[in-house]
Amino acid sequence: MVLKHIVVLLCLCVWSAPVSAQLKKVRFSVAAPSIAEMPFRIAQIKGFYRDEGLDVEVIFIRGAVGMQALLGGSVDFSSASGSTIAAAVRGIPVKLVFTASAKPQFDMVALKEIRSIADLKGKYIGISSRGGAIDLLTQLMVQKHGLVPNKDVTSLVIGGQEDTVLALRTGRIAAALLTPPRPLMLAREGFNRIGYSGDYMPTYPSGGIGVTDDTIKNKPNELYAFVKASVRGLQFARQNRAEGKKILTDYFAIKDPQLADQFFELYLSRLPVNGSADEAWMKGAIEFTQKSLGDAAKEATPAQVFDFSFVNKAAKQ
Fold it and tell me: How many CB atoms lie within 10 A of CB 170?
């Protein structure tokens, strides 16, 4: 009960559809407005959730609190894919059932005087939370350039993407992983894009649907309805480019046509085919997470971390 009160205080509810007695009310937590959330945003705007009998309330919950809310029953689904995988690898009964991006969405953006990741030695790097996707990917990227996390570089918890952009602009941090369109916009201000996380870890999502094993077992129809509508949202942008681009650019208030085109094409290039992944991808994500978690990780098979059966069923229809 205490957790539910905390979540209510920390959350900002958006995208809420008109309430109908015939619709099933469900709650979906997202960490922040980002490109990885667009399939869900499109599904909400186009009424795909309502088509499946759902009234979806989208709630912003930052960092690890989102996973706590999922486990505590304050929300039904979570878009925190990295936290979901990490929790499952720790032995917590949750699974990722949909991935919104074939590759990580994050680009590392740095101050104007920083030309490479190696130049970050002795600097602060902004992250959203400890142990989340951004933290794990940041550690991997700096390690690949010979830097020891929290020794050669220091991770500083900043919060959401907009807070991180502000911290970068004010010089509080030297670099951070950011999702589009932020890297594209900051590049116009002279900041440097010094790395794309997908070049370092191609088998890791930056958005999706995480659920508890209890939901999979006891609410399969409700889960399938949510996944099916989300798959439609993912496919919509490819099949309806003009309207998909308008939804994307309106959400991020992008007025510049050239920037809008760049943003939309980048978004399409990182979409999965249908929201699922193959065995090799799943094993790669698990191995990376196990390595990152160290002693806290347990042995885990893809079946213990992922369940793409709902996505595959929806894609066939």
Answer: 8
Fold of domain 107-199: D-Maltodextrin-Binding Protein; domain 2 (3.40.190)
pTM over 0.85: no
Distance CA 148, CA 133 (A): 18
- Sequence-ordered alpha helix ranges (H) in 11-132: 38-45, 48-51, 65-72, 81-89
* CATH fit for domain 2-103+204-316, picks 3.40.50.1100, 3.30.2090.10, 3.40.50.2300, 3.40.190.10: 3.40.190.10
Q: What is the mean pLDDT of each run of 10 residues along the chain (317 residues)?
A: 42 46 91 86 97 96 84 95 91 96 89 97 92 82 94 93 94 95 94 94 87 98 98 95 95 92 91 90 90 84 97 89
- The Cα-based distances of 71 to 42, 76, 154, 222 in angstroms read 26, 9, 30, 17
